[in-house]
TrEMBL record:
Domain annotation YCII-related: ranges: 1-107
UniProt name for this protein: DGPF domain-containing protein
Top-level taxonomic group: Bacteria
PANTHER family tied to this protein: BLL7163 PROTEIN, BLL7171 PROTEIN-RELATED
Amino acid sequence: MRFMIIRRADKDTEAGVMPDEKLLAAMGAYNEEMVKAGVMLQGEGLHPSSKGARVKFTNGKPAIIDGPFTETKELIAGFTLIQVKSREEALAWLKRWPSIDAGGNVELELRQVFEDDDFGAEFTPELREQEARIREQGAKNRR
């Protein structure tokens, strides 16, 4: 099972405040622990929403909305993608998040990633093959 750990934004992440050496070291140790355990697939921090944009479609027509976005509690500052055996195992990893992040006042969200079998018969063998090709190429693109 794959899960995404979503690190919610706060006033500091939205202001572009970079983590100090202590937090970078703590996050590095946490990430290294997950890699050694074979559960971490990817993890990245995100620039503030002031450098981002949204695209809203109305009747099929896109409109671009440049950041920043005002509702900080709805924004994402980073993510980690993990692969574990259960939701309980994923939650156990979340509980080990470095407590010094955001002065101990950080909000994380856990979301399960859809797997091929979740889509049922509608996800035909041809569509599964296409998805496998896309994932393979995506992995090559990351190298």
